[in-house]
Structures are given as structure tokens and as C-alpha cells.
Amino acid sequence: MPAIADARFQRFPQDSSLRVMGRLAGKVALISGTGQGMGRAAALAFAAEGASVAGCDLDEKTARETTELVEAAGGRMISVAPVDLGTAEGAQTWVRAAADAFGGVDILYNNASALRLGSFPEQPAEEWYFTIRNELHLVYESTRAAWPHLVARGGGVVLNVASIAAHRGAMFVGQSAHGAAKGGVAAFTRHLVVAGSRHGIRCNVISPGPIKTPATGGFFDEPEGPAKSVLNTIPAGRAGEPEDVARLAVFLASDDASFINGADILIDGGLSALAP
Q1: N or C: which end of the chain has fewer CB within 10 A?
Q2: What's the average model confidence in pLDDT over 128-157?
């Protein structure tokens, strides 16, 4: 894979320690929300490690851009967009497209989500239901659609993205719906560990802290906002980047993590190590 190796170094210019090792060679990875941010970074990183990637997004334009980036770097990727993973039909359409294109499914990375922030009880009920649907129900629908393919493959990996909000509250913004949804994702994953044990399916949680993405850029860029005070509390001294999360996901999806099952890994620069 010489072509994609060069592309990956360009994608991660600040980290000269990165090496492409083909840890996911021959694997088929479903990654949701690949139009931008952590999903796009994951698509590039998984493809760089040899996986065939089946992405999806609500935004057809950005989804296509990610596919073009992966293919230009020498990787293999298809994308289904627009698709609503909050419905059984949408999730099944995505999974079928991956299985038809690549012959099966080995990895499901439930990255996509959409949320509404607001303090309890001022937040309207419809924003609660929106967040639960688009951060918890879509994980259920995607996993339900992909599960038979993982079983048929003789094993595989499910990675679910939760959040530091599933572990602790925040004074600077109301996150009751977001925290409840992501807490549900983490709990759901623990039960998937049990369900997957006899099929050789490993299931883990990635819980990011403050990550700078197109979706969160407004928070970090707001001059009078709380971002500065939040960043000052992170021992690592910076916000996370989508590539930080992508590298963790690649590791957890690979055989290097074959004995990691049922973990919930906080990737937050040390923020959760501090007292609330």
C-alpha cells in the first residue's frame, strides 16, 4: 500500500511517529458519519491500515468528498448518503450496501450522532427526544442491522462512540439529554459484550472529551465563550483532534486489542482524571 502511506503522513503532518502497518488488511469496516470530523478522520485512518471502508452520512456532498480523499490516497471506500440511521430501513440499506460491495462486514464503528444541548428542565421535550433518537436509537439500529453479518463472519468488532458526558456533568453547558443518550450507549455496549461472546464479537466504547471538529468549532472559536476556561483544565494543554480518536479506533478494531472487550476508554487529554 505505498500510495496511501504517503497520504497518511500528509493527513497527520504533526505526528511523524505514525506508521502504516496494515493492521486492518482484508477487513471491511462500517463507519457512520464519515462526512466530516471524527468520521472522516476514521475513514482515512482505517483505509490507511488496509480496511475497505463503507461510510455513510446525511450530507451527500461531504460524504462524497471523504470517499474521494480515501480513493485518492489509494484506499477503498464506498459511501451511502443521504441515509437516516435512526430508522431500521436506513441502517439496513447502509449495511447491505457494504456487504454487497465488499462481501461481508468485520467492523462496525458507530460514530455518527446529532444532539441538542440545553439545561434541564428548560430544554424543550422535543430536543430531548431528538437527541435520544440520534445518539442512542441510531446506534441500536445500526448494530441490529450489522449483527447478523458479524456473526456470519465468525466474529468481529463493534466500536460505539459515547462521550465524557456519560461520565460527568458540565457547568458550562446543559447536557442532560446528551449525557443520558451517551450513557445509554455505554450501557448498551456492555450488554453487547455478553451477546457477542459466543460469536467472537468484541464490543468497546470510545468516550471523547473536548474534540475540535467542524461541528464543535463554534464552541472553540467563540471569543467570549467558555472554551478557554475548559481548555485550561485539560492536563494535555489542548483540545483533541479527530485524528486522536481515529488512532484509538484503529487500535481497538485491530487484533492488537484482541483481549480488550467491554472497555470504555476516555480520550480527553486527562480531563476526567481531575476532580469535578
Answers
A1: C
A2: 98
Which uninterrupted H or E stretch holds 241?
none
Are 57 and 39 spatial neighbours (Cβ–Cβ below 8 Å)? Answer: yes
If one looks up domain 21-72+88-266 in CATH, what number appears? 3.40.50.720
Please give the pLDDT value at position 51.
98
Please state whether beta strands 107-110 and 28-32 pair in parallel, antiparallel, or not at all (unpaired). Answer: parallel
Q: Kind and range of the H or E element at 265?
A: strand 264-267
C-alpha dihedral over 224, 227, 233, 239, to 10 degrees? -150
Cα separation, 4 vs 10, whole angstroms: 10
247-261 mean pLDDT? 98
DSSP-assigned letters across all residues of 59-99 = -HHHHHHHHHHHHHTT-EEEEE-S--TTSHHHHHHHHHHHH
Candidates 8, 1, 26, 17; CA nearest to 156 is: 26
Secondary structure in 3-state letters for 153-191? CCCEEEEEECCHHHCCCCCCCCEHHHHHHHHHHHHHHHH
